[in-house]
């Protein structure tokens, strides 16, 4: 979870993630973790800036072959 997603927006400082969306995200992650666990896998969940968290995870794991990610599309005004 990137803390920057829970700050206010650039223009009007409106929350990017309100309480209902946050609850949905948390329930979805919990459900995904439970589903993966039933299949013999797991889900790593961290809080922090992705550029820091991913670096730390790669360092901890040691032998990472591939890394897949997506970038948020930002609106140009």
Automatic annotation (TrEMBL):
One of its GO terms (biological process) is photoreactive repair. Keywords: Chromophore. One of its GO terms (molecular function) is FAD binding. Residues 1-77 form the Photolyase/cryptochrome alpha/beta domain. Transmembrane segments: none annotated. InterPro entries: Crypto/Photolyase_N_sf, Cryptochrome/DNA_photolyase_1, DNA_photolyase_N, Rossmann-like_a/b/a_fold. PANTHER family: CRYPTOCHROME, CRYPTOCHROME DASH. This is CRYD protein.
